[in-house]
Amino acid sequence: MKTILVTGATAGFGRAIALKYAQNGHKVIITGRRKERLDELKQQIAQDYGTPVLPLCFDVRENTEVEKALQALPADWQNIDILVNNAGLAAGLGPIQDGHLDHWERMIDTNIKGLLYVSKVVCNMMISQKSGHIVNISSIAGKEVYPNGNVYCATKHAVEALTKGMRIDLHAHGIKVSSVAPGMAETEFSIVRYDGDEERAKKVYENVEPLIAADIAESVYFITESPKHVYIQDIVITPAAQANATTVRRNQ
To answer: Is residue 117 flagged as an active site residue?
Structure first.
């Protein structure tokens, strides 16, 4: 039984990833800002799988909250085997000159700084135990820039660069660092990007069969459950209808 820490576990990829590990008998630490959703997920895991689960309610954007929560882990939860840095978001979609500072700061603070805050604490735990695996959830937006994606794409390009840097820095300590870069996936992603406009969000996936959260969970689990001598460093996963960030085949 391994101990898994999943950030942003209250919805989408994070929730699916937590359920996947719990389903396979692992202990799961779930984090997020929405306590009621963490409690619901904890209850579901307990009822469906009976595996240990520890909910931690904090905001990855606040380093003091991150340190307080993770440095106070109970003794039997401190040996984290796998960290999945999933917490992230896209806010807004428009040309750079029309960007909103609030959108920019939320993306930078969550997608980059939040990943760093959590990784700083956990990678030092892993160094002490001379093992571990970190999986950063990136995006196809970290591989290529698309129109009106500017700052979001920049944050995911930063995740790609950080993943490569972490991979080098932690290699001597026996810690693997991987990334999963999803393409079009139907979660809360577009609803958040469009500030809660569900009708606009639905149009993103019209006449397309997108990825779902469970697809990403399967990829993350595959990476971390590969044999010890196998190192899957990077996966890009898109629906069959998507060739790259901007080329999508829609059914008529």
So the answer is: no
